[in-house]
Amino acid sequence: MAQQMSLQQNSFASFVPEAVAEILAGKLQLQVSFEQSTCVKTTSGETIEGAHAVARYLCRLVPSSTLYGTNDLEKAEIDNWLDRSLASDFTTDGALKNLDSILLPRTYLVGYDVTLADLAVFAALKTENGSLKSYPNISRWFNFCSSLDSLKAVLKRHPQDEAQPRTKQADIGKFVELPGAEMGKVVTRFPPEASGYLHIGHAKAALLNQYYQQLFNGKLIMRFDDTNPDKEKVHFEEVPRVGWGDQSGEGLVIKEDVALLEIKPDHFSFTSDFFDKCLEYADQLIQKGLAYCDDTPADQMKKDRENRVESKNRNNSVETNMALWKEMKCGTEKGTTYCLRAKMDMQCDNGCMRDPTLYRSKLEPHPRTGDKYKVYPTYDFACPIVDSLEGVTHALRTTEYHDRDDQYFWILDKLELRKPYIYEYSRLNLQNTVLSKRKLTWFVDSGIVTGWEDPRFPTVRGVLRRGMTVAGLKQFIASQGSSRSVVTMEWDKIWACNRKVGVVIKHVACNRGGGSGQLAAGRWVADWVIDPIAPRYTALEKDCIVPLTLEGAKVECKTIPKHPKNPEVGEKKVWLGPKVFLEGADAELLQVGELVTLINWGNVVIKKINRDNEGRVTSLEGSVDSENTDFRNTLKLTWLADVPDVVLTPAVCVQFDHIISKGVLKPEEDFKNFVNYDSMSTQEMLGDPALRDLKKGDIIQLQRRGFFICDQPYSPPSVHSSKETPCTLFLIPDGHTKAMPTSGGKRRKSTDPLLEIQQPAKKQRGPSAIAEEETDKKEEVPAGKNSTAATAAKAAEEAVPVPPTQGEAPAQTPAPSKAELEGLEKEIKEQGDKVRQLKSSGAEKSVVDAEVAILLGLKTKLKGLTGEEAAPAKKEKEGGGAKGKEEGAKAKEGGGGKAKEGGGGKAKQKPPQEKQPSSGKQEGAKKTEEKKGAAKVEQEQGKKEKEDQAKKDEGKKVTRLGLEATKEENTSEWYSQIITKAEMIEYYDVSGCYILRPWAFAIWERIQAFFDAEIRKLGVENAYFPMFVSRGALEKEKTHIADFAPEVAWVTRSGSTELAEPIAIRPTSETVMYPTFARWVQSHRDLPIKINQWCNVVRWEFKHPQPFLRTREFLWQEGHTAYEKKTDAEVEVMVILDLYRRVYEELLAIPVVPGKKTEKEKFAGGDYTTTIEAFISASGRGIQGATSHHLGQNFSKMFNIQFEVPGKEGEHDFAYQNSWGLTTRTIGVMTMVHGDNTGLILPPPVACVQVVVIPCGIKASMTEKEKAAVLDTCPNDVKNSQFVAIPRDTGEKIAVGNDVAVARVKELLAEMYKRLFNKKEYHIQAVERKQGTSKCSGRLKRDFDEAQKRAPRWTEERPQPGYPRDGNHGEDTDDRNQVRDYHLKDQGKLPPSELLVPQYHEDEEAVQTQPEHEESKSVEFVALHTVALPFDSISDDPREEIVQLYQEAI
């Protein structure tokens, strides 16, 4: 029986199955048809969809085919290539280079013949259609595949679908697929109110409805909501119809607005057309007891609904309600006091369901129905009825209507009407804008704007009049898509869309195949916007033009293109002549002899500059340098020629600002308090003669000024008034936050008078003087300068000298007398002292600002007299005079250099306040013990004297590099000092977040290198997933997130805009990664998935952060795996737990106890949690080191991670998952365990510096003779060829011969590591002190004894990461691949159902809950559980079985 295969018509996506069918044509019977998707129907009637799935199925039908490989390994490789081709993995240079290297020795990607891998990758590269010239091996392979006869036949059928070179994509938002949409059956509607002009919020609604109508070849209804006669305005019904097909009658204003948007509805209607039907349905609700008439006053009704109080009329009989309803319909005096309310649910949490109003009495005549009706339906009642009756299938509404959805469907349910789908999208909100028709009407009625078409208004007509193009507006709407995220947009975004090149889009529906019922594939077509098509013109400010006389220039006319890059825009005439006009601001910048460029003419040399008495440029003289065509480094100037009989065009440039001065108004703020009454400015210009030809609506660019739209064309002098009408141009915003420079070019002078004063003075003085001045300013000028800016600017303006007229010498200013200068300098000094005194005494800011203003004024006055800045006040050190300098020098000498505390093998630094022994004779002399004791007493006395002196002399510097707290007395302060003074942590201005300095990060890098290498042996791959999590993703798994909910940090703002839906920062990544796992896993062949990522996470809610141990943001690795079998997953849990143990014991020299968490302590949502725990002797607490969780199938069921069971077609099962993590807490635990009162002690495997060589007594400043004298006094070391080694942990001095230095240093490091690991007193004695002789202490001893027995052989035979080893020290590979013996012999065999068994916890309730990344709360928790292994039977030596499973896992 022939197989039936459907291929997606005219799509290259079906290339792979089509090629397979071509290759297997003689071995397989296929009936091929071209439809809208690729699928195949099996003989059993099942359907297989997807190009690659169909290709695999076809290959399996022909077992002799090699297309899908000849063995399982080849099939796995082929599947990998298929996945890569689907993931668009060949778009980057790195991926192509990798593919090129793979193809270097190969003809085919897999095996020795063409396979699905070749077909899929070929199709992917063909689709991308990028250049392969840089990849010779790919080019060779690609050309070879193209030459295959079977592929040639397929390629011939797809000539039109070969992809074009990639181009820039348009900025298109996400358009969500409509639920239940069918081709040709989708009906949408756009229902505006007939009470005003459309604004751009309406434009978004209209364009979205049109988008879906075109996408599905459906129908668009435009329906006027005219349910309220009060709001209907005749004015909006009297505008002539524009381009509205063959609709009869006069069109509405809104019709014209919609026509301007190029939207043509298929049907036009009014809600009033259905008034009779609405009355019938209201009768039905009353008769069913689902509606009642109510005369409660409106204000009281509102309060009752808020307080969930039922109306007294709610339980009236049907007869009573029908009688009152009749009164309402007749418009009687009694009837007008009633309204009709739905009887829904007054206790509902949704306020819209608390008996809303369905009808209200209105005696005003309706514009269309006149006095026929006395009652009118509300929009909420009429809308669902009319939607259903008109056949609307999808009602698109903004999210503000969300609460009314229940009401919408309640009405349809009770009336038994068809229910449309509702899709919500976000409302368009704009900064500095109001969109309420009531508020916009106030602006019109108040005369603040000229009307509804005012360019400052957000109406469609307003923005189009200001220069917005329909294409630009569509682009902006398209970039928003149909998202539900409510944001407040800036206008810059809209205007930027209006200016962009070639990315504005139109939506076009294309039928594939041409038949009805075929899917319409929406595509976006590029359209031009204003930048590429706007012609260029020139205009100069009328009152600021300066004539330039050009020697050798003649009157002539030449033709140039209107657009330099687009000749299709056309050409214009430009007049040249001996006299031209320049911008006045440009003229001020020119210098004699300067070469400048006149745009569209050439280079000109400035020969003379004429100025008036006030220093302003009045005219220029120059000559044309036609031979010089180098325009690269010249100033570009716009100009206009003054030619007889050629009249320049008068023009007025108008610029608009926002009519609301505040960006975002709060609900309680009155918009009238933020009205910008000065939102329009005008400027008279002289422009090109060609500007006379502009028509209304033409968009142009005035060079160096921006884009403009012609609002009023030029008119010649009127025969009545003899006055000409200038061309009126509106500036079109282009989305830039900075204004376009109109004149002055790049060399425009600063407008800050303070800068104009300071810059010349800084050039005259040296860098040191400038730095001294800036330092002085910091002391004198407060942070807030608002009160002083005006004073300083005014003083500066008075002090700036006026430039002299060209050719004249500067006016001579009488020199100030010496007494005058000295008096002014004295005033400045006294005023500066006064300012400093006020600041030090904490005076009010306003008082300080006033005095600072006086000080600046005095300095400006001095600047005006001398041309130099006032010299900054010289501040003497506190402590004063020569004595202070002397003591400062002594403090500097005594402080010495900076020294880190701790580090493997580092020398200890003496406290800075102790006087260091001087070099010379004392250094080499032998001192007796008595002298040492006397010296020590002297030092203690000197230290006390210096401390007393330090209290008196506050100016003396103290380095305080050493630890000032002890580990035993003040552990918290000791820990804070050790991590900062050892340069591991730098505090940050966000609480709970810290800077990891290089010393700390180097430790983390060594841990990362070790662990990463080990998990790679297990087949774990590194990846990275986003740090942001949507609220929906977190809420999907409520059990899991409940454990972290208090610690989740949320992003709620984007700039100054509130996000519609906050975004979480990952506290952990299950909800980020597992939806992806669900997409990756289709078959058991996709398992196992083993992913690890090194990243940061944020857990926010806690009060007392501690660096490394408990932080809001920390680094970690988190592994997430998925397996087909539970046993495989459980083995991995133990393997990873053992790797964590090795990190602590082999790298950090910290003995830990593995165990299992109780049900209360386990990871929320998991089956069980295993952990390793360390003990902090200083605090007497246990601390969690790392965890490895077995999640079972809990998460796979939540996120639908399932696979088809092998051998059981159609049967699916859920994956078994694990997660495991290790954090930078490791560094904190290491510091707490090994640090002492001198500083940090680093275990050698993780110390980035393990040995420090200190040449004692020799200084860099010594001469060679002095160095030789020092060496002569060291017979014990230099002469005996030895040195002294001091291990950091003991401080013991050990003499080591130079000949055995390398070997001995290795031994010392190994011994140091062993001592750190075996410090039992840190672990056991502290516990016994804190909890007495409890039963638990003996067991705890046993556990730590067992842990110490497992101490790694960190010697020359067992080198570790970071340990310097030579070629004789190889890796103990076998031992690295083995899991440690967990000493099960003494415990006996455990039940098969138990993975980890608690060994001792007398009081289970006493065990404190210990969430991830939190310190244990009680000392009892250190009595940890002992690990057992997941075996059905345990042999005498369980090591053999775990090794076997571990090697299988690898």
Description:
By secondary structure, this protein is of the alpha+beta class. 35% of the residues lie in helices and 18% in strands. It is built from 43 helices and 49 strands. The strands form 14 sheets. It has a seven-stranded mixed beta sheet with strand order 18-31-32-33-29-30-19. β24 and β25 (602-611) form a beta hairpin. α23 packs parallel to α25 (845-866). The longest helix is centred in the middle third of the chain and has 24 residues, at 929-952. It is globular, with a radius of gyration of 42 Å. About 22% of the residues have low confidence.
N- and C-termini, Cα separation = 46 Å
Continuous helix count: 43
Structural shape? globular
Which structural class best describes the helix and strand composition? alpha+beta
Please list the strands of the largest sheet in the order they lie side by side: 18-31-32-33-29-30-19
Radius of gyration: 42 Å
Number of strands: 49
The biggest beta sheet is recorded as: 7 strands, mixed
Name the average pLDDT: 74
Helix content: 25-40%
The unreliable regions are: 160-171, 234-251, 501-528, 737-741, 745-813, 874-932, 953-958, 1321-1341, 1350-1443
Beta-strand percent range: 15-25%
TL;DR of this structure?
The chain is globular. The chain contains 43 helices and 49 strands. The two termini are 46 Å apart.
